[in-house]
Amino acid sequence: MDENSSARLKRRLLGIIYRIGLFLAMLTICLPGLWIVLSSLRPTVEIMAKPPVWIPQEISFDAYVAMFSGIGKGGIPVIEYFRNSLIISVTSTVIAVAIGMAGGYAFARYRFRGKSSVFLGLMLTRTVPGIALSLPLFFLYVRLGIIDTHFGLILAYVALNVPFTIWLIDGFFRQVPKDLAEAAQIDGCTRWQAFWQVEFPLAGPGIASAAIFAFLTCWNEFALASQLTRSVSAKTLPVGLLDYTAEFTIDWRGMCALAVVMIIPALTLTYIVQKHLVGGLTSGAVKG
Amino acid sequence: MATVTLTKLTKRYGTIGIVHGIDLDIADREFIALVGPSGCGKSTTLRMIAGLEEISAGSIEIGGRIVNDLPPRSRNISMVFQSYALYPHMTVRENLGFSLKIAGAAKEDMDRRVAEASAILGLDTLLDRRPSQLSGGQRQRVAMGRAIVRDPDVFLFDEPLSNLDAKLRTQMRTEIKKLHAKVQSTVIYVTHDQVEAMTLADRIVIMRDGHIEQVGTPDEVFRRPATRFVAGFIGSPPMNLHEATIDDGQMVFASGEKLPLPGQFKANVATGDKVVFGLRPDDIYPTGHGISSGGAADVHQIELPITVTEPLGNETLVFVEFNGTDWVSRMLNPRPLRPGERVAMSLDMSQAHLFATETGKTLRS
């Protein structure tokens, strides 16, 4: 066998090993998700079985039917929770991205006194675990009378997300060459127009990804929400999961069904936006 | 169409001065090149004229109107950037028409002007492509097209050719010259390449450390450089420059070698003066192989050893040792020469330059 054919064989073999490795990695990542979906469709006996039952014996949508059946029939106010989650997540994402865009642009484009300390300070806020703040926040919110309100949770989530969105969006604006905004100004734009006509469309995919991160953080957040909300009027879906825990039992099937209901919108959103996340849009703007 | 006048134009960042109060009058339809080494303030000057950089002091007039505090869009200028700065999310057509769209021009008017500009630059077949699908030269042309479409009073070019390869650069240089002949606008062109400046400009402004060293036609700055810096900067290969002391009508160099003082400077120097003697490679040549062979008025003969030769086909650059360093000389109708060989060199002293060592200024009266 000559050198070339052995090199070719080696390359093919490596390719196969690479694919197997990738499959195993993906399996590990996807298995919990799959397990949740399966568990929502099978009776509790099967969920709790030891050793685990891999292939479900019977599939039923009882948990989903029960979930929407109203209080007393095993149901929970899922529509209200969904509405709360949506209002809180969307509003806080919009606000966080708006602030993030302004802040990120300022950090990327302007020189000002104390810039790096301010930036560092913003990033340091990320080092404090959210749960550590929940008790002080709780007292503060009680005094202010914003406990168990949409507003209270939106405020907390905006504060949670702003540093991260600023950091992300700053990076995306840095990738847009400064010359482009200057060229636009010479072409007759005001600073404001130059931003919306040139810099914003180019940083758009980055801003979209920052928005997804912010949205998912709010959508999935449990620790703060469980402390700061009490009633159906403000509880979000993750907190709603707790409705399935009774004093002595946990309805795993119902919980998994609600988890699936939670995952679907997040997954759909990510899927829709991902095609806008393609990079490389700025290539060709400048020499390259 | 407009004149441009800079008066005491100054730029400072904090306490650091970048441009130190320069004065410049640019005539209507003139092609001016700002040239100098990097960090000399030429790009900053251009950006101040464009309105992209605030001015610290002084004033800028375009077409008789003071524009010091006007934003770029109100100055009726257009600019070609070194990086081209094409909008990557727009097609070539949209790039060209962008300024008209912002100005709210009618669709027909926009189409007509984009068509005109693309016809001038040969962009007709590329109108629906995006910048990423274009080659460097094509992007450069789109950038120029975008500038033309605006029909500005003044064109500003910021090192537009420095991202192109040597061949394309020569080609685009010719196109820029043709373009200027066609559109007849005032052009301010920044470059660090003296060849570009010499070939394109009506007048050249040579800058150094935020000051203007000399303003003149290509011929003036080449033949009558006002300072030692200009003498060394303009011309390729550069002028040979050597420090010497005047001693009784002779120049004495550090090595002890002597040359007669060129006649045209005799009245302006005295014994003991420190000077810098300059001679272009064209004015020093192996005897019988020079540009001015036979016709030169004041030729000094000297025998010097050859260190290196660089044959270029029609001519050879001959490096000879003088005063401990190499002198470049240009040899026409070359014959083979060997390093180490001593050859008779002719120095055309009528073309020599002399600068005061201390001030760097020419001693020509």
UniProtKB/TrEMBL annotation, chain A:
<comment type="similarity">
    <text>Belongs to the binding-protein-dependent transport system permease family.</text>
</comment>
<feature type="transmembrane region" description="Helical">
    <location>
        <begin position="86"/>
        <end position="107"/>
    </location>
</feature>
<dbReference type="Pfam" id="PF00528">
    <property type="entry name" value="BPD_transp_1"/>
</dbReference>
<feature type="transmembrane region" description="Helical">
    <location>
        <begin position="154"/>
        <end position="173"/>
    </location>
</feature>
<feature type="transmembrane region" description="Helical">
    <location>
        <begin position="119"/>
        <end position="142"/>
    </location>
</feature>
<keyword id="KW-1133">Transmembrane helix</keyword>
<feature type="transmembrane region" description="Helical">
    <location>
        <begin position="16"/>
        <end position="38"/>
    </location>
</feature>
<dbReference type="InterPro" id="IPR000515">
    <property type="entry name" value="MetI-like"/>
</dbReference>
<keyword id="KW-1003">Cell membrane</keyword>
<feature type="domain" description="ABC transmembrane type-1">
    <location>
        <begin position="82"/>
        <end position="273"/>
    </location>
</feature>
<keyword id="KW-0813">Transport</keyword>
<dbReference type="InterPro" id="IPR050901">
    <property type="entry name" value="BP-dep_ABC_trans_perm"/>
</dbReference>
<feature type="transmembrane region" description="Helical">
    <location>
        <begin position="252"/>
        <end position="273"/>
    </location>
</feature>
<dbReference type="GO" id="GO:0055085">
    <property type="term" value="P:transmembrane transport"/>
</dbReference>
<dbReference type="InterPro" id="IPR035906">
    <property type="entry name" value="MetI-like_sf"/>
</dbReference>
<keyword id="KW-0812">Transmembrane</keyword>
<keyword id="KW-0472">Membrane</keyword>
<dbReference type="GO" id="GO:0005886">
    <property type="term" value="C:plasma membrane"/>
</dbReference>
<protein>
    <submittedName>
        <fullName>Binding-protein-dependent transport systems inner membrane component</fullName>
    </submittedName>
</protein>
<feature type="transmembrane region" description="Helical">
    <location>
        <begin position="194"/>
        <end position="216"/>
    </location>
</feature>
Automatic annotation (TrEMBL), chain B:
<dbReference type="GO" id="GO:0016887">
    <property type="term" value="F:ATP hydrolysis activity"/>
</dbReference>
<protein>
    <submittedName>
        <fullName>ABC transporter related protein</fullName>
    </submittedName>
</protein>
<dbReference type="InterPro" id="IPR027417">
    <property type="entry name" value="P-loop_NTPase"/>
</dbReference>
<dbReference type="Pfam" id="PF00005">
    <property type="entry name" value="ABC_tran"/>
</dbReference>
<dbReference type="InterPro" id="IPR003593">
    <property type="entry name" value="AAA+_ATPase"/>
</dbReference>
<dbReference type="GO" id="GO:0008643">
    <property type="term" value="P:carbohydrate transport"/>
</dbReference>
<feature type="domain" description="ABC transporter">
    <location>
        <begin position="4"/>
        <end position="234"/>
    </location>
</feature>
<dbReference type="InterPro" id="IPR017871">
    <property type="entry name" value="ABC_transporter-like_CS"/>
</dbReference>
<dbReference type="GO" id="GO:0055052">
    <property type="term" value="C:ATP-binding cassette (ABC) transporter complex, substrate-binding subunit-containing"/>
</dbReference>
<keyword id="KW-0547">Nucleotide-binding</keyword>
<dbReference type="Pfam" id="PF17912">
    <property type="entry name" value="OB_MalK"/>
</dbReference>
<dbReference type="InterPro" id="IPR047641">
    <property type="entry name" value="ABC_transpr_MalK/UgpC-like"/>
</dbReference>
<dbReference type="InterPro" id="IPR015855">
    <property type="entry name" value="ABC_transpr_MalK-like"/>
</dbReference>
<keyword id="KW-0067">ATP-binding</keyword>
<dbReference type="InterPro" id="IPR040582">
    <property type="entry name" value="OB_MalK-like"/>
</dbReference>
<dbReference type="GO" id="GO:0140359">
    <property type="term" value="F:ABC-type transporter activity"/>
</dbReference>
<keyword id="KW-0813">Transport</keyword>
<comment type="similarity">
    <text>Belongs to the ABC transporter superfamily.</text>
</comment>
<dbReference type="InterPro" id="IPR012340">
    <property type="entry name" value="NA-bd_OB-fold"/>
</dbReference>
<dbReference type="InterPro" id="IPR008995">
    <property type="entry name" value="Mo/tungstate-bd_C_term_dom"/>
</dbReference>
<dbReference type="GO" id="GO:0005524">
    <property type="term" value="F:ATP binding"/>
</dbReference>
<dbReference type="InterPro" id="IPR003439">
    <property type="entry name" value="ABC_transporter-like_ATP-bd"/>
</dbReference>
